[in-house]
Every structure is written in structure tokens, then in C-alpha cells.
Design brief:
Layout lengths: L1 H12 L7 H31 L4 H8 L6 H12 L7 H10 L4 H13 L2 H11 L1 H25 L7 H5 L12 H36 L2 H8 L6 H9 L6 H13 L4 H13 L2 H7 L5 H25 L1
């Protein structure tokens, strides 16, 4: 139905040629814009209701009762349903450390929360099917667990900024909400989030439409196809300087996959954009010394590259 509407609007109302590059790009843009915003509105509302049961304080309390390894797994899983944005990184990190949560467990959560985004999960499911969606979740959780375990084993607590250890964050009282209040919160959160992210989504769809209509398929496959042994690290290097939420990068992922790029390369690019970014580095520099910050980025980047190569080999 949506595809029929997009085709009619672009090729009949606007009058573009279905075989032209501009027609193909605009058709992709119209179809994906309507589809993604319908998905976002529905998904974000449902997820917001789930999120209302996982406040930052409650998340801290759950993780503070678990040690390493088990804590790493639990932290990575909690990150899926508690997608705190990068602006929450500093207070969350301070609160986790003050609560006695091991450093490695804290990092498992900080990796998983932006990387394994539940909105992106449902969107990937709707666009590509459950196999790719679960591949995204599984690989993201593994990266978060491994990164946290490695950082925990390195015993790098001394590379946390000194003032963090001196802060004592009191446990905030959580006001219980009725189910009706949770629904009202979800509605307000959905409207607020859509107002906040719609430009990024439009930009992402626009980039995807450009790639879909104009990027030469043979050029992309030549430099990022299966035959290029450096395709995955190149995808990660390209993704790190970019800054986008998962909802904004999914349309780009769709266009790249339609051009024939291997799934591992595309997943590596997506993970690098959502889990590693220059703005995140600037924010985390407030709580991490340079050595720990560099170690964190290096371990996560290496894990993403390994995941990319693995999925390129088996899929």
C-alpha cells in the first residue's frame, strides 16, 4: 500500500520517469519517509512504556548487586531496553561508579545502550526480516559484553578522572507511576523524541535515497565488497566521525545493502556510527582520562571489526 502510494505520487503526480536516477531516488525517499515515521511513532510509544519501568536509578540498583561476568551480561541486556542518549553518559557513569558497580560492567552498559537500540531493532526487523535484526542485536550484545570484560580485566580504575571518586551521589527516591501515567509519559516522550530526531531521520533517508539512486553499484562493491580485505575497518573508520542516532542511520544501511554490500560490512558501519562517535568522546573525556578513553574506543572498534569479518564470512 505504501509502495503504491509512493509510486503514484512520484511517477504520476510529480511525473518523473520510473527508470531515471532522480525518479528512483525520490521514490525511495517518499516510500521510506512514510514507512519509517509510521514505524517510529508506533515503536517509540511501545518502547517508552517499557522504558518507564527502567529509570536510571533503578538500573543502577539492579547492576549494583551483580559482580563481573554475570554483571557484564546483565548490563549488556539492560542496555537494550534503556537506550540513554550520550548526554546521559557522564551522570550515569558517575552514578554507576558511586554505586560500587565494577568498571567493566559499567562499560558493558555504556556500549550496549547506544549500540543495541530497540528502535533500530524493530526497524531492521520490518525492513530486512528477523534474521538480520537478531544478528544486529546478538552481535551488539557480544561486543558490549566482551568490551566490558576486557576493560574490567585491565584494572584501569586509576584512569577514571579523580573527581569522579570523590562525588557521592545520593540514591534518588523513585516515584511510582500508575499505568495511566506511564501511558501519558509514553505519549509525551514519543512526541518529544520525534520532534528532536526528525531532522536526523530525514537526513538519513535523504542520504539513503541518494545512494539508492545515484551511487554507482560497481564503485561501492569495488571498495567495500567481499573481495576487499580492508572493507570492514574502512567502514568503521568512516562511521566513527559521523554522528547519528540509530533511527537516522537505518535508511542508509538499507540503501547500502540494496547496493550489494556484505551484511558484516554494513553492520560494522552502523555499529561504529551508533556506539563510537567524536561527540561521545568529548563527553566521556569529562570522566575518563585519555588512556582509558583510547582503550575503550580501541577495544570496541576492534570488536566491531571482528564481528564484521565474522558475518561476512558466514553470511
Amino acid at each position: 500500500m505504501l509502495k503504491t502510494f509512493a509510486d503514484y505520487f512520484v511517477f504520476q503526480v510529480v511525473g518523473l520517469d520510473a527508470k531515471s536516477r532522480l525518479g528512483g531516488a525520490l521514490d525511495f525517499f517518499v516510500y521510506d519517509t512514510v514507512k519509517i515515521f509510521l514505524l517510529l511513532t508506533t515503536i517509540v510509544y511501545v518502547v517508552a512504556v517499557i522504558r518507564s519501568y527502567f529509570s536510571p536509578e533503578r538500573t543502577r540498583r539492579i547492576l549494583s548487586h551483580n559482580r563481573e561476568y554475570v554483571g557484564n551480561v546483565l548490563a549488556a541486556l539492560l542496555g537494550i531496553v534503556t537506550p540513554f542518549c550520550s548526554c546521559s553518559a557522564v551522570p550515569l557513569f558517575i552514578g554507576f561508579v558511586e554505586s560500587g558497580i565494577p568498571l567493566g560492567v559499567t562499560f558493558s552498559f555504556l556500549v550496549s545502550s547506544p549500540m543495541v537500540n530497540e528502535v533500530a531493532l524493530i526497524m531492521l526487523w520490518g525492513l530486512f526480516g528477523w534474521k538480520i535484526a537478531l544478528t544486529y542485536v546478538g552481535s551488539g550484545v557480544v561486543v558490549a559484553i566482551v568490551a566490558g570484560m576486557v576493560i574490567g580485566r585491565l584494572r584501569m580504575e586509576r584512569h577514571v578522572q579523580d573527581y569522579v571518586w570523590e562525588i557521592k551521589v545520593g540514591a534518588a527516591e523513585m516515584q511510582e507511576q500508575t499505568f495511566r501515567e506511564k501511558l501519558d509519559y509514553a505519549a509525551g516522550y514519543t512526541v518529544g523524541l520525534l520532534k528532536k530526531i526528525w531532522p536526523y531521520v530525514i537526513i538519513g533517508i535523504g542520504l539513503g535515497a541518494f545512494i539508492h539512486g545515484y551511487a554507482p553499484e560497481d564503485l561501492l562493491v569495488r571498495y567495500a565488497g567481499r573481495d576487499n580485505p580492508l572493507a570492514v575497518p574502512l567502514a568503521v573508520l568512516i562511521g566513527v566521525p559521523l554522528y547519528s542516532n540509530a533511527a537516522g542511520i537505518v535508511p542508509v544501511v538499507q540503501a547500502l545493502m540494496e547496493k550489494g554490500l556484505p551484511i558484516g560490512t554494513v553492520l560494522a558501519f552502523m555499529m561504529a556510527v551508533t556506539a563510537l562517535s567524536l561527540p561521545e568522546a568529548v563527553i566521556l573525556k569529562n570522566v575518563l582520562k585519555t588512556r582509558l578513553l583510547a582503550t575503550f574506543f580501541g577495544i570496541v572498534a576492534a570488536a566491531i571489526v571482528i564481528v564484521g569479518y565474522l558475518f561476512n564470512a558466514i553470511l
